Amino acid sequence: MLAVRAVDGQSASGIDLKAMDPSVNPCQNFYRYACGAWRKNNPIPPDQSRWGRFNELAERNLAIERGILEKAGDSQLGNFYAACMDEGVIDRKGIQPIEPLLKQINEISSKRELAAEMVRLHHAGVRALFNFYVSPDDKQADQEIVHVDQGGLGLPDRDYYLKNDPRSTKLREQYEEHVRKMFALLAQAEGAGDAQATADAHAVMAFETALAKASMDRVARRNPDNTYHKLTVAELASLTPDFEWKHYISTIGIPPIESVDVVSPDFVKALNATIADTSVANLKTYLTWHVLNAAGDLLSRAFDEEDFRFNSHILRGTKEMPPRWKRCVRGTDRALGEELGKEFVEVAFQGSSKQKALQLVGEIESEMHKDIENATWMTPATKQQAYAKLAAVTNKIGYPDKWRDYSSVKVVRGDYFGNVVRAYAFEEHRNFNKLGKPVDKSEWGMTPPTVNAYYSPNMNNINFPAGILQPPFYNPKASAAVNYGGIGAVIGHELTHGFDDEGRKFDGAGNLRDWWTAEDAKAFEQRADCIANEYSQFSPVPGVHVNGHLTLGENAADNGGVHLAYMALMDSLARHIAEKEDKFTPQQQFFLGYAQIWCENTTEQSARVQALTNPHSPGEFRANGVLRNMPEFREAFSCKVGDPMVSPDPCRVW
Questions:
Q1: 244-264, pLDDT tens digit by residue?
Q2: Fold of the domain spanning 17-62+352-401+442-636
Q3: Residue 137: how many CA atoms within 13 Å on its side-chain side?
Q4: What fold characterizes domain 101-318?
Q5: DSSP type of residue 405
Q6: DSSP letters along 582-617, please?
Q7: Cα separation of 61 and 359, whole Å?
Q8: Separation between Cα atoms, residue 460 and residue 497, nearest integer Å
């Protein structure tokens, strides 16, 4: 790519000069050097728990979507959005939308009826007890299989129930009080007293704690060998003999099946004892809570506000509820994502961005081939397998080739809850309908306006929605160096995922298969351990450290992605000599372009949630953690051994 001069009158290169804090020595803390002024001048908005460059772009996309929806009139999109915006109707309905679900739960008289009730609740999008879905078979990636997985918790992770430090203990108390308040609101809406609410909340906490104790932790789940257990339906039933699995499977709405992937057999096995130890009354209480939890933000104001108070304010530090229009745009995107995405692409996505992204993908793939070739720690046998996998990678840019047809989704003005449930039922049916058919590799897992990207191990493809192919990630007016540091690093990141600690266990066809020699696997693990140990030393807030093993895949992809993008820049500079712009060399522009996509501010509460649950490191460490490992960065900014931005023991996988 060739540089284009003058970016919005701001800089010649495309670097955000106003974001920088030149008083900071780049060799001491490059993140603060690149983002210091941005962080000072961009406090977290009251309706957010974190605020960064991703959020800035997401808000711009959200405003574009709002314009589309407000002009949509009497259409499926327009009616869905209007129903969400009509708070008056939602308030007047009170708990009426969930009364049929509550009545069904109330009519349960024995535990033998639990399976039938789970069918009804899962159809309504209430994810109680366990998760049940269809996705590719890890060992036959061209075929779809049913997965039975752990679930049924109201807090974000099992560790919230199990850790005994003062903060965790307090948060459990706050969660139990939240459950109590929701039960009290339900009792008031039904015209009853709320004396039972405290006991109900305690029963929910006891049941969910039992589920948490049986759940696999997030680090263990990162290993695909730990989450693949193909069993017959009879074998599944034997794990939980007191739950009518055969009834559930025969009535949930899937074709007849012979086998399932039981993702966490220990969890499914423990369900039996958990259900046996719980009275019918308390099982009904637990199910009622999950109806309230799933529907809280879809009901009248009192439920909506209490849902926000705990899940956003207490848990993540968000000060104010987002404006209704934002929530309704996001709700429409979740329900009718490709219908809205089709309109978004027409308005906001330039075809030239797609072509430029495709060009960059080709360049980055070429650099990955060289990187494998030059990997002195890999034997020729494993390299040949890696070349084959790399050659099989496919990519999707911007939006689907064929748009999803939502015409069967009934959308009614004045029935927001019903619209959400019917849209969920459509998606569930679409998911279940994959069984018995070849895997559709053209399917997207994100909607076009999404500011994100992903790699799919089973499909061996990299995916870049239109939403992220915009500044600061890709700017057609910026220099080549800045764009290599932005979207180039993002592309390299996703490609590296195919060869990270999880992705490397899948072959080019997307199958879970060990294609590594024992010697090479050991060498990989040693290099990966270096990164895991390095990032475990980083602390986003006092008393909290990054979980280097949970974030290993993303950190390895960050390090590899920047390395690949830098290699591509060097090849570009060999073809097209570039001068300094804004007093920075192309190499310096590259590293600034990369660091500035991670400028962010985060509430302490959100930082703590992220440390427990997010496989990505905080923005500061996504920048500094990578660059301190790169001799190219040290050279570009003349850093010296002993400077904080020069690792004494650099880590590198790819």
A1: 999 999 999 999 999 999 999
A2: Collagenase (Catalytic Domain) (3.40.390)
A3: 18
A4: Neutral endopeptidase; domain 2 (1.10.1380)
A5: -
A6: TTB-HHHHHHHHHHHTT-EEE-HHHHHHHHHH-SSP
A7: 24
A8: 10
% of the chain residues with pLDDT over 90: 96
Residue whose C-alpha is closest to residue 459's, from 429, 477, 430, 438? 438
Helix (H) or strand (E) holding 211: helix 197-214
CA distance 625 to 628: 6
Q: Alpha-carbon dihedral of residues 590, 595, 596, 600, nearest 10 degrees?
A: 170
Amino acid letter, residue 230: K
Give one word for 54, left, alpha or beta, with left for phi > 0 and alpha for psi -120 to 50: alpha
Using alpha carbons, select from 386, 375, 400, 525 the residue that is nearest to residue 460.
386
> Taking the domains of the chain in order of start, what are their residue ranges?
17-62+352-401+442-636, 101-318
CA distance 603 to 605: 5
Model confidence pLDDT, tens digit, residues 600-620: 999 999 999 999 999 999 999
pTM for the model: 0.94
Euclidean distance between CA atoms 104 and 437, whole angstroms = 34
Q: Which of 135, 231, 133 is nearest to 437 (CA)?
A: 135
d(CA 280, CA 585): 70
Strands (E), 330-467: 394-398, 454-456, 461-465
Provide the Cα torsion 442, 446, 448, 454; round to 10°.
-80
In 3D, which of 95, 71, 328 has the Cα closest to residue 190? 95
Non-local (6+) Cβ contacts of 424 within 8 A are 124, 125, 335
Cα(493)–Cα(518) distance, integer angstroms: 26
Scanning 252-300, the segments in alpha helix (DSSP H) are: 265-276, 280-295
Residues 201, 156: Cα–Cα separation, whole Å: 17
Closest CA to 557 of 459, 490, 645, 481: 490
- Which residues are tagged catalytic? 494, 558
Task: Phi first, then psi: give them for residue 71, nearest 5 degrees.
Answer: -100, 0
Residue 10: its pLDDT value, please?
A: 67
